[in-house]
User: What shape does this take?
Amino acid sequence: MTNQRLVVSISPHIKNGRTVRRMIVTTIAALMPATLWGFYQFGLDAVALVAVGITAACGTEALISRLAGKTSSLGDGHAVLTGLVLALLVPAGAPFWLVIVGAAMAILVGKMPFGPLGGAPIYPALVGLLIVATSWPNEIKSYVQPTTAPIELKAQGAADAEFPRDAVLIDPSDEAEYKTADLFLGKQVGPIGVISPLLLLLGGLFLILRRVSRWQAPFGFLIGMGLAAGIGHALDPSGCASASFHLFTGSAMFGAFFLCTDWSSTPVTPWGMFLFGLIGGGLAVLLRIAGLPYGAVPWAIVIMSLATPIFDRITPTPFGKVASHA
Amino acid sequence: MDISFFSRGIKLSRQVTSGKIEQIPPSERVVLPLQQGSGPPAELSIEIGDAVEVGQTLARGASNSGADLHASISGEVTAIEDLHFPNGTTVKALVIEGDGKDTWIEPDRDDKPLIASPDELLERIRCGGVIREGGETKSLAQVIDEAMSPRGHLFSTGSTVAKPVRHIAVRFADQDPHLNALAALTATIGDETADLDLGVKVLAAITGAEQIHFVLDNKQNSPGVDKLAEENDYVVLRLDAANYPDLSSPMVARAVSGKEPDTAFKRVHENGILVLDVDTVLQTALAVRDRRPVVDRLITVYGPAGAGVFKARLGTPLADIVSAAGQEKNIGKMVLGGPMKGLAHHTLDFPLTKEIPAITLFAQNQVTLAVNDPCVGCGLCAMVCPIRLTPGMLSRYCEFSSWDLAQEAHLFSCIECGCCAYVCPAGRSMVQFMVQGKTELLSTRRSES
Assistant: This one.
């Protein structure tokens, strides 16, 4: 007894048992309803694309870890999440190689150069997505008619003209064709995982309640989009669709709840997160109106991510300190 | 404006107290370190080989306000030995071999202590060896001294010059909800509030405090304490102890004064708010009225077999206390203090001192090794930090030796409560980084000046 050495360590001596892996698994679980909806709407093509995306991401990560002589970090599930998110942001008609290249690029360019998890300045899946979207602007718009969408998909050949902005037709003159309720319930054209705002909203709220993500960035983003679109619509109804249309189409909901809440590429302070979201939302609407050829929401979030270090400086006044406005 | 919306801090499970305090009989051999809390060690006032009785002064507190050290068993002082403290320092300690008679000194009782002058009362507290633990453990007399004089080291006359103490808050529950010594003590007080009453009045007389607050856990039921508060116009405040660290001194100070005390460099009591545990107040009453010094203390033993509250003589080997609690089997880790803030020690071969409020034990299979992965930037720490810091960022500054950035980001405001490390999914040793950063900065400052 007397010579038995006990373990020593710094306090606290208990933890709540939360691990990176569990948080990532929770995030993947929160994405599942929207993913399954995508599978239902787009069939086996979508299932295959998602499987390919996840496999490519994991394979790239394993390969690079091996080449770099690092212990594989596959176990934390981040590669799976990256592959999944990438595949969900791609339309069901996209070729397999597009998803493979995208997932590989996400890991190769977006994640691995920045060291262990937590180093990436931009969300890796967005890096992969925007690389393939910029390189193959036609393939990234291979939209497919969903099973239950009330609107007929316009001819594929017209994709460039008819589906110019952020995955869906955001041409105010066509807005009348869409019912807001249909859009919200997920009866719309778009990439595999983003067409159901309702299920994404539920998944996002689940993450917030589980304290995996915070409310500030997502709601800041939605408020920012709503405000920008609302003002734009009031000023020029023919040039800008209504706020609800902007919020329920394209990757707005997905971006708010699953891209704005990434760890390393978004701020961590309460006001930092909120302003990040608010400005990002406004920027997304601006990019949509300004006619960015593809992916206003992803681009807006990528641009905001680059400013994350600035937002992280907006720290709350510490306990007992007097707020300084210098 | 804080837009976190979630309450800061973390939810911990609360130990339910049985309200029972078990006495551990005086042991045959006690070891009493001369170091009591921070500050210089006490100065020996007896010689090796002297026979001592329980309560006899062994060493006089250093400086004007250091606490005295007293014999906790009767017997013979046989040696001075080196004792390794968990913080890495080595301290001289007295060894007393007991004679088994447990004879006490008989001090002069003073039945009307309140007519004594504040200076006299403060001196009796000092002689009684009363220690204020929590945060920085030190002599209660010294704490009061510092609270009343803004520059304690220059004007430590203990007189009434200088800064008023506006509030005294008496805490009736432990800061860490895993511990229940104070709650058990409160339950045993019941309606016998004479000591408590006297202790509070003595402290109020010394400090001239304007308002006394009783801080209880909102699950605590204590009619006696409530009645005492009502009779004397004290404010009773019920906080949620399960929401750690709401019962820590800075948070209690905020709750009683409505103002947040600055936690950097300035101690809470230097903001005119004295936060004391109820057992300190009771010890104060005994020290000024019965002239009974502190020779024992209340301790929670919290381990795999549950929690129990014990009262043991100072210097009792911790191994004896752990055995008395029936938790001696399969120990993998022992922490002096609660699981959130305690200091781990490598051996049970250590005496009970005034600074140890609890022993937390972990079975061998409960011990996990530190992971300390890189920060993933999830921001959970920033969400729970009660001081509204960004601990993840601070930990990175300290990890990469950017001490100046850490200081700019208010590293010194950190109260080391451990909430950030508790939630960290990457298993980072957040408190380690904070303490390291503070130590580095302080040592640079010292070498520069």
Remarks:
- Chain A touches chain B through 46 residues (CB under 8 Å).
- Residues 26 and 316 of chain A are 28 Å apart (CA to CA).
- The mean pLDDT of chain A is 85.
